[in-house]
Write a structure and sequence with these properties.
Length: 451
């Protein structure tokens, strides 16, 4: 742990910048896609610019956490920044969509480390009870960066060129690497002579790749023989990967920890929260534009109440846990609040926009109050030795929820076009209802002042 308050502040500033870099690039290209198509052509393949980053990010998360546990989180984080910056440079010089998508794939590999390892660094530097307050703002940064990405991307594209969306990462990445080397405590990881679970990493990456490809295809074309076959192959790949990880001596994803009730329930809550909140986030602007006949700018502004709710939730729960140590009430109350807000949105379909904004803020507040807290609780239950793997596992499960939720809700949105969006919010409320069941099953434990 940093010995002084100055050291703690430097560590926090470092991890905020690193997290923002990884989160921004998930959404920053969205508003630049028309300009990219106008310059590079190939409109039929432009979706791969977005999908390639998401695919690599999800697939590489387990490996990033395991590598950090083995070789040291600081060392692997610096390498992740280097890969991210190098790929960003290549993205900026892309001459066709195929090269840009390939560079985005590599950028996502580095981005996985940027999103997973900061939380693992905190696990080794901050006591468990204080960790919730320390990680809370990082969760808020992730939420704000995800929503702000399209706005920043649009501004950079209009003011300069879409290429600066990627070149901006060069000075920011250099600053992040310098901060990591000076502010993050050195850790040496486990015995580097142990064999890395390469087979497990490849199998998990294959399963994650199949999930992203299948859900994207189903959202675009619906169910057909090709998507059905792809789904079956993905299920088989996931079963093989989990079976391998159960038997591996040093698994990339320690599925054996799921025998711990707390870790298992945290993973289920992360999955359901990802499906419920981040799934619906993708479709709020479309919903507002279609139902309320607003401009794109106004519909985008309806994301701000959700973001404000998330920021308030992660910070309030973090500081409360630091003071009292008790954490179980937050996932219970959070799931109930988010589920109630989603149900109200379904029942009050077509309500005035101020009412909609208030309900969206409650949806964000409820989910924000427990999503980041799950990381701290699972880290504490799993132990410091596998903090990176546990953190990566939760992030992997959450991103899986986001992917599946976006696909399922996307199918409901397609059916709702020109009609009621109530089924979308009903499905969201169902996710949080299941989450409430999981939250009620959590043990009534406390986080102590020391790790």
């Amino acid at each position: 742990m940093p010995a002084t308050a100055t050291g703690r502040r430097a560590l926090f500033a470092c991890l905020v910048l690193v997290t923002a870099l990884g989160a921004l690039d998930q959404t920053i290209v969205a508003t630049a896609l028309p300009e990219i198509v106008a310059e590079l052509g190939a409109p039929s393949r432009v979706s791969w610019i977005v999908t390639a980053y998401a695919l690599a990010l999800t697939a590489a998360m387990p490996a990033a956490g395991a590598l950090g546990d083995r070789f040291g989180h600081r060392r692997v984080l610096v390498c992740s920044i280097a890969v991210f910056v190098a790929a960003s440079t290549a993205c900026g010089f892309a001459g066709d969509v195929g090269f840009l998508a390939a560079a985005r794939l590599v950028q996502g590999l580095g981005g996985a480390g940027l999103l997973v390892l900061p939380q693992a660094v905190v696990a080794g530097a901050v006591p468990a009870r204080e960790r919730a307050a320390f990680l809370g703002p990082l969760g808020a940064v992730y939420a704000v960066a995800t929503v702000a990405g399209p706005l920043l991307g649009g501004w950079l594209t209009d003011a300069t060129s879409w290429r600066w969306i990627f070149w901006l990462n060069l000075p920011l990445g250099a600053a992040a690497a310098a901060l990591v080397l000076t502010a993050v405590p050195a850790d040496h990881g486990r015995d580097e002579r142990t064999r890395f679970d390469t087979t497990g990493a490849v199998l998990l990456a294959a399963a994650a790749t199949g999930l992203v490809l299948v859900t994207t295809a189903v959202a675009e074309t619906g169910w057909n023989p090709a998507t059905t076959t792809g789904t079956a192959l993905t299920v088989v790949a996931a079963a093989v990967a989990l079976g391998w990880e159960r038997r591996a001596a040093n698994p990339v994803l320690p599925v054996g920890l799921l025998r711990d009730r707390t870790v298992l329930l945290c993973c289920l809550l992360a999955l359901l929260g990802g499906m419920g909140l981040f799934g619906v986030l993708a479709y709020v602007p479309t919903w507002v534009q279609e139902v309320y006949d607003t401009s794109a700018t106004t519909s985008g502004l309806l994301l701000l109440p959700i973001t404000a709710g998330i920021v308030a939730g992660v910070n309030a729960s973090g500081f409360a846990v630091r003071r009292w140590g008790s954490w179980r009430p937050f996932p219970i109350a959070g799931c109930a609040l988010s589920g109630g807000a989603a149900a109200a949105l379904a029942l009050l379909d077509g309500a005035p926009l101020p009412v909609v904004a208030a309900l969206l803020a409650l949806l964000g507040l409820g989910t924000g109050s427990f999503m980041q807290l799950l990381v701290v609780v699972a880290q504490d239950a799993g132990g410091a030795r596998v903090a990176g793997a546990v953190t990566a596992g939760l992030a992997f499960v959450r991103e899986t929820g986001v992917t599946v939720g976006a696909a399922v809700l996307g199918a409901l949105v397609a059916r709702a076009a020109g009609g009621s969006y109530a089924p979308v919010f009903t499905a969201t409320a169902g996710c949080f209802a299941l989450g409430l069941v999981c939250a009620l099953a959590l043990p009534a434990e406390r986080l102590e002042s020391e790790s």
